[in-house]
Amino acid sequence: QRKRAMSAVWQYFSLKSEKDSVAQCNTCHAQVSRGGTEPGKFNTSNLIAHLKQHHKTLHEDFRKTTELKKQSSGNFKQPTLPKTLAKRDKFPRDSKKALTLTEKICQFIVLDDQPLSVVSNIGFKRLIEHLEPRYVMPSRHYIVDKTIELEE
User: Fold this and answer.
1) Which own/partner pairs from 52-58 qualify as long-range (CB within 8 Å, at least 24 positions apart)?
2) Measuring CA to CA, which of 21, 96, 103, 135 is 20 to 30 A from 55?
3) At what angle do helices 45-54 and 56-72 cross, to 10 degrees?
4) Are 21 and 29 within 8 A, CB to CB?
């Protein structure tokens, strides 16, 4: 069952049950059809029309609330499938994000006096995978050869 966004109109109406085909106006107690006889066909058009016809100030409040809701949600657009799938792609090793994460791991090793082998530990790998699934953990050899300057 899909969760739907609740319309602002429901602050002006009540239901005894979600399956009721009519809603009761909280102001004048009129019974207003929900536009269908079964839950899948219900809508709020009649409720909004009732407010507009019988409770002009409430309808204006409803309209303002709805407008504010639209503005606060911004211009949200559902991402395209290619963009969504791209979020699963691993970072290239030379990407800014991957380089930053590798640098932070090196700082962890150096500042906390950790062994280089920590990057091979299953628990550490799982932690990093959980925090950033797109990051490819470099080998300890890569870290020694490319990132940490060892004193001789």
Assistant:
1) 54/25, 54/27, 54/28, 54/30, 55/12, 55/25, 55/27, 55/28, 58/12, 58/27
2) 21
3) 130
4) no
Task: Count each helix (H run) and each strand (E run) in the chain, helices first.
Answer: 6, 3
For residue 147, count CB atoms less than 10 angstroms from its CB and return exposed for 0-12, middle for 13-18, buried for 19 or more: middle
β-bridge mates for residue 33, sequence order: 22
Q: Measuring CA to CA, which residue among 95, 106, 107, 108 is closest to residue 135?
A: 95
The pLDDT value given to residue 146: 80
Nearest-angstrom CA–CA distance, 12 and 66: 13
Q: DSSP secondary structure string, 73-119?
A: TTT--PPPHHHHHHTTSPPPTTSHHHHHHHHHHHHHHHHTT--GGGG
Q: pLDDT digit string (tens) for 41-74?
A: 899 999 999 999 999 999 999 999 888 877 776 6
Residue appearing with tokens 């800014």: 96
